[in-house]
Amino acid sequence: MAVRPVRLEIKDLLVGYNSQGRQTIALKDVNLKVGDGEFVSVVGPSGCGKSTLLRVVSGLLKPLSGEALVDNRPITDVPDHIGMVFQNDALLPWKSILDNIRLPLVIKKMSKAEQEKEAMRLIRMVGLEGFEHFYPKQLSGGMRKRVALARTFAYDPSIYLMDEPFGPLDAQTRVVIGEQFLKMWEAVGKSVLFITHDIEEAVALSDRVVVMSKRPGRIKAEFTVDIERPRPFYEIRFDPRFRELQREIWESLSEEE
Ligand SMILES: Nc1ncnc2c1ncn2[C@@H]1O[C@H](COP(=O)(O)OP(=O)(O)O)[C@@H](O)[C@H]1O
Ligand SMILES: [Mg+2]
Description:
By secondary structure, this protein is of the alpha/beta class.
């Protein structure tokens, strides 16, 4: 694989929380690089500091020491060029599906005609054609997740940060949305830092999977997913190399549980 320029660099992070007079160290000695256009997933036991890591990278939380850099610049506050999809999808309830997806395009000052065209393209990509004038509360959890995904792609940040975005969905919906997400990502090819507790999802999507230790979390192992793209998101699970990686990652992770 060609060497990619580094987009995101995490250096010697030490992160703690103060609550009730006690300090909890959530992350210690965390080092990680994400290359341009690289898809990196993070798996780790519950409470090991995965969400904390994304909070630091998104500028919402200051580390005790160490730093996170995007394009060689330290992240000081919430930067406008990185985008986040959380587990709960944070749609605006008073806006239609179309207007929710259009919001980032309005902020980008796209013309009204272009906004409409791009939003409708994304609505079709996530399979929500016909629902554009519905409101979030009229949709299922899976459909709302599709809206959130379409909105992220409308925003099209230089780094996608995703914290268990498909977490609350049932297994079937996860596969369908994962497949749409993979297709959309393959078309834009941006850097992604993706948190999941699902090893299969991590391997199917990623160029690299990193495993975190239990708290205080650090990167304990790293696996390169040397499976060619484009990949069929579901069928790839029957590939012998996929199975092998899945087992190795499972073994690494199970030492931490
Ligand atoms: N706001 C907070 N105040 C105090 N402790 C916190 C806070 N948020 C998270 N923690 C602690 O930090 C550790 C890592 O949390 P988190 O990053 O949410 O883990 P993960 O996402 O891997 O499940 C946990 O032990 C958690 O209890
Ligand atoms: Mg979390």
